[in-house]
């Protein structure tokens, strides 16, 4: 049996591209202990493991920490605390009280950035879609009077205006919110690194 320290040194010595290729091609054959070591190495390098979340690569998220804040109280807690400006060690303490171990906490904190990126992208989509629907509704409402219009046309037009406005506001709010969380996350990371350097 290969010594644990040998495995740690082997993964640590691999360049990023080699480590990712190894995880994709051979990760599913690893023992649970070696999978845990591999997860830790990915987290320590802040590698983007999203590309590994298909097929046999689900072992990287097999500790039941999903990306949906509505079904994951740990991720929801981390996002909320980050929004309120809490620093990483305060959030870590809270997650420890919720029963997570250090490896699981590292994955939750790592996922914050990924979730923020997804939510910002969705918020931008909502903002653009809301703007398009709103403009369409306004355009229909103020069509030239020569065109035949009826009550249904006005109802649809005003419905589009209201729907588009709400979608636009939702997009603006969510984009602002998750950009703030991501900024606080980066600031927390920088402060954490500065603490280690001192």
Describe the protein:
With 198 residues, this protein is mostly helical. The protein folds into 2 domains: 62 residues, no CATH class; 86 residues. The C terminus is likely disordered. Helices cover 72% and strands 0% of the residues. The longest helix has 47 residues. α6 packs antiparallel against α7.
Give the secondary structure arrangement, pairings included.
Elements: H1 4-13, H2 16-26, H3 32-45, H4 73-83, H5 88-97, H6 102-141, H7 151-197
Helix pairs in contact: 1-3, 4-6, 4-7, 6-7
Shape: elongated
Largest sheet: none
Rounded radius of gyration (Å): 23 Å
Arithmetic mean of pLDDT = 76
Oligomer: single chain
Q: End-to-end distance, in Å?
A: 39 Å
Helix content: over 70%
Number of domains: 2
**Low-pLDDT windows of residues:** 53-71, 193-198
Query: Treating each run of at least 4 consecutive H or I residues as one helix, how many helices?
Result: 7
Write the H/E string, N to C: HHHHHHH
Estimate what percentage of residues fall within beta strands.
under 5%
Structural class, by secondary structure, is: mainly alpha
**Number of E strands:** 0
Outline of this structure?
This protein has 198 residues and is an all-alpha fold.
List the defining traits of the structure above:
2 domains, mainly alpha, disordered C terminus
């Amino acid at each position: 049996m290969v010594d644990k320290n040998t495995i740690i040194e082997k993964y640590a010595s691999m360049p990023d591209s080699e480590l990712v290729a190894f995880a994709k091609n051979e990760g599913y054959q690893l023992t649970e202990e070696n999978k845990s070591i591999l997860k830790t190495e990915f987290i320590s390098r802040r590698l983007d493991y999203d590309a590994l979340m298909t097929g046999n690569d689900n072992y990287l998220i097999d500790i039941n920490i999903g990306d949906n804040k509505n079904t994951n109280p740990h991720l929801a807690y981390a996002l909320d605390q980050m929004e309120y400006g809490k620093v990483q060690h305060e959030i870590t303490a809270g997650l420890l009280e919720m029963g997570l171990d250090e490896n699981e906490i590292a994955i939750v904190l790592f996922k914050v950035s990924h979730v923020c990126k997804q939510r910002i992208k969705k918020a931008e989509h909502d903002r653009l879609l809301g703007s398009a629907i709103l403009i369409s509704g306004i355009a229909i409402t103020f069509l030239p009077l020569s065109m035949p219009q009826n009550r249904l046309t006005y109802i649809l037009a005003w419905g589009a205006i209201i729907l588009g406005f709400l979608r636009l506001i939702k997009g603006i709010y969510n984009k602002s919110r998750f950009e703030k969380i991501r900024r606080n996350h980066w600031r927390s990371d920088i402060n954490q690194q500065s603490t280690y350097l001192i």
